[in-house]
Amino acid sequence: MSTEFVDLLKKYPAGRRENLIPILQELQDQHGYIPEPAVSAIAEYLEIPAVKIYSVATFYNEFRFNAGGKYHFQVCQGIGCQVDGSERIRSELHRLLEIEPGEITADGWFSLEWVPCLGVCQEAPVLSVNGELYAKMTPVRLKELVDKFRNR
Amino acid sequence: MMIEIDVNGRKIKTQKGELILDVLKDNGIHVPTLCNLEGFKPSGACRICVVEVEGRSDLVPSCSYFVEEWMKIRTHSARVIKARKTILELLLSNHDDGCLSCDRGRWCKLHELSFELNVTERKYGRLTGRKKIDNTSQSIIRDPAKCILCSRCVRVCEEMQYVAALDFLKRGSRTEVGTVLDKGLNYSSCISCGQCIQVCPTGALREKSHLDQVGALLQDKAKVPVALIDPAVFVTLGEFFGYKAGPEFSSILINALKRIGFQRVYGTGWGMEFQAGKLVEMLTERNQEENNSPLILSECPSVVKYISQSRPGLLPSLVPLKPASQIMAHLLREMTSKQTGKEVSDISIVYLTSCTAAKNDTSAALKIKESGFLPDFSLTTREAYRLIRLYGIDVESLNPEFQEDFFGVGAKSGHLSAISGGNVEMLTRIIQTRVPNAKLNGEKAGKLRGIKDVKETTCELNGKKLTMASISSIAQFESYLKEIRNKQKKIDLLEVMACQHGCINGGGQPCRGAERNLRNRTKGILEWDERYSGIQTRDHLDLPSEMNLSDADCKAVFSPRQITK
Predict the structure, then answer these.
(1) In Å, how far is B133's CA from the nearest CA of chain A?
(2) Which of A59, A88, A107 is the last residue of a domain?
(3) Alpha-carbon dihedral of residues B151, B156, B159, B161, nearest 10 degrees?
(4) Is the CB of A115 inside 8 Å of chain B's CB atoms?
(5) How many domains does chain A fold into?
(6) Domain check: are A78 and A132 in the same one?
(7) Which domain, by its residues, includes A33?
(8) Which fold has domain B212-554?
(9) What is the pTM of this model?
């Protein structure tokens, strides 16, 4: 097994497949994404076929297999946000960052992703940056937010 | 408990706990299915098998519902037929419409159902564009645009073959069948057994075709094309032309291939027997006390691939001999070269086999100029049928023919290797005739035949007991290994075939009708065997005097293979 992931995996009992999602979550927290070699390492440790792990990880939008930017924007596509104008947020982000979902800006600072409902519909439209929620977004507040990150 | 249910106004007696679909099938009522796979747990993915049950507001999938005594079932009511038709129309809306050029042709289950349910137009617009074809593997090609997500390949790969190269990725309308990290079959745990092709209802999975290359070879005046045929192909290919499985078609096939342009046509039987002889020598010399792990036959390329990818610890247990097809390919090159005066490199061996994994071990797949021991190309049974059709051969007008020279003379027991248990039976015959003082357990040897998963036999060799077992499918292999470990069983030789029931059920065989024809194919092999060999085998199997093949030439080296696990 690749030694890189041993410390993380050792926290969970070997051969118990119910720990797959907690492991994936912890990996993503640590790295910002799930490194490809980790898939083989988990497969070996939990004794499940690697494709099953990939299957579970692609089932949930939460997990990524490529490194995002320094600031990873996840914009809610849920129905509540749609009603409250998330479309404007998305087109404004397009304009500001000049990237498509799944891409990273040339300087490596920003990446973009459309995600299903983030679960805070009462605060729509919402987006999250590196896991931190920003509620009741407007194009003006969005520009301020992006500028704030750029000037950090 | 016996119960009585009402089906379409008819009373049917059945057992409680049976699935509705099974009951209907037993009573001659045909309900279409797509995802249902005999011998596997129902998945209920496609819903095409829905029936109406009185008292229930919704239609129920008959493949995954048990019968109850109160049930009044209607299998072909207007509502049911409309639902089935809509399901099919929706499947077609998301299905590639390149049917005219689809490899699956008239064997497509979707096409058959369209006809059956009277779907004559594309009712719903097309949802998806072309998807990326996975052609990374040298044996199996996946075209996701034709996939209907029935999960048959996924289940066979995981439950029967323990390989789990394929699974569902993503979810909802984006769901697709794919490999780990989307890297393609070549980087997955795939063992190229081709069972997924066998169960695929559409053309989403197919073999990597060598037909075009073989066509070019047959036109090339500088080359001498030689056909090498697996016994499984001999007994199966006739099915396409309406022949019964067995010896009848095999001699016609030889003639057909000669008409196409193959200068010589041979079976692999001689090589199988030669190799088995070498193995018997190895077994007699082997110190059984020292070696506790069983020797594993390396004849099946899928098993070798499985071991080198997923169980490298067993690599030293593999019989270090080249497969018979490679030994034959080498000998035929040498012999044909001597007889025709052409260079060895101008002799091209086309291996007709029921195996999709054999495609990996061809010089065409490995992109090497010097073939050495490898066949140049490999055609599956399906491709062989298409080749005969391509060249417009009318098989019914052909006379049986035999290749009347050294390797062509019918092998005595070699044909048996196409069925599970056949290799062991061949070995017992060789031991009986060639090894002095060998004692055979007559009663048990008969148990090697028939469609069973695990077959064991014992014989006495130089005063020591020799236990041999034969197994088919990787799931069986894994559970048998566990059994050996747990029960401390002592097995000396293990014949493992990746495809259930052996090569006669290989990935390159006709896609439809396997369940119907398997028994016939087995019978065909045994009938053929009886006609040409009795139950004896040669005392010695020597090479023609002008040829030589050293032990080092026959030796094979196995190494672990890195994949994305």
Answers:
(1) 18
(2) A59
(3) -150
(4) no
(5) 2
(6) yes
(7) 3-59
(8) Rossmann fold (3.40.50)
(9) 0.88
